[in-house]
Design goal:
This protein is of the alpha+beta class. Helices cover 47% and strands 20% of the residues. The chain folds into two domains: 2-158, Regulatory protein AraC (Jelly Rolls, Sandwich); 163-275, Homeodomain-like (Arc Repressor Mutant, subunit A, Orthogonal Bundle), CATH 1.10.10.60. The protein has nine helices and eight strands. The protein is elongated and about 65 Å long.
């Protein structure tokens, strides 16, 4: 992961605020806080191997692992014996989003696909840079990035999907407007088409084709409600090539036709304008 190496570690600002850094350390690196600390600590391992030792035991951190250490927990962490540990980290005070998290002393999640890894890395990189530059709203910018990661952790803790299914969902959302073949998606996640179809149905309870249709209908309904699109325009923008097929899928999922759905929304807006 040489693309990460341009960020250098730096001296931490005063304890108790948001601060971040990037360390690439040998196994001589260790930090021990027997009394815990007031702040929370988040680390994301870019390469190598680290460890956390808390009263509940020892947890290893490998490439692609996101770790979250709860405030007040006695701990020791560092590079694993005989290993280098390349990781980006952030200390932060308690935020409301921490209440959504499981109650463990230490949460370690493996971000099993490139999309999530890049998403978390970009967020922590922004915290690192914004906390260095300290523009007028730097603290709010950093909190916003950290809140997003905390919600991702909470969401993944509640609904643990197979990483390949998770990657499939990301692929569908990114390519929603394009004609999609199961064989193409399967190659992207490293499975055969039959294996992906079986795994996806067993995990989500629906087929890949059905899931894609649901995504498209949700987006189309949002375009009709919030962007003033006609039913035909919304159908085209979300990837339906045949309006009749779009209309039948919309009726099934939303309980009304797309044109009636739009009329209801337009009527509601007009009534609101008359009251004003």
């Amino acid at each position: 992961m040489s693309q990460y190496d341009r960020f250098e570690s730096y001296a931490s600002p005063a304890y108790g605020t948001i601060f971040a850094g990037h360390f690439n350390e040998t196994d001589r690196y260790t930090t021990s806080r027997p009394g815990g600390m007031e702040d929370w600590l988040m680390t994301y391992t870019l390469s190598g191997e680290g460890y956390f030792h808390t009263p509940s035991g020892i947890n290893q951190c490998y490439e692609g692992d996101l770790a979250l250490l709860r405030s007040g927990v006695p701990h020791e962490y560092g590079a694993a014996p005989g290993k280098q540990w390349n990781f980006i980290w952030a200390h932060f005070p308690g935020l409301n989003e921490t209440h959504y998290l499981p109650g463990e002393e230490l949460i370690v999640q493996h971000l099993g696909n490139e999309h999530l890894q890049n998403r978390v890395y970009r967020a922590l990189r922004n915290v690192l840079l914004d906390s260095r530059e300290q523009r007028p709203l730097w603290r709010e910018l950093c909190e916003n990035e950290i809140r997003g990661i905390l919600l991702l952790i909470a969401d993944r803790s509640r609904d643990k999907l197979d990483p390949r299914v998770e990657q499939t969902l990301h692929y569908l959302s990114r390519h929603m407007r394009e004609p999609i073949k199961i064989e193409t998606v399967a190659r992207a996640v490293g499975l055969s088409a039959s294996r992906l179809s079986h795994l996806f149905k067993a995990t989500t309870g629906t087929t890949l084709v059905h899931m894609l249709s649901e995504m498209r209908i949700r987006q189309a309904s949002a375009l009709i409600r919030h962007a003033g699109r006609t039913a035909s325009e919304a159908a085209y923008e979300v990837g339906f090539q045949n309006y009749n097929h779009f209309a039948s899928q919309f009726q099934r999922q939303m309980g009304t036709s797309p044109r009636e759905y739009r009329k209801q929304f337009v009527k509601t807006v007009e009534q609101g304008m008359r009251r004003e």
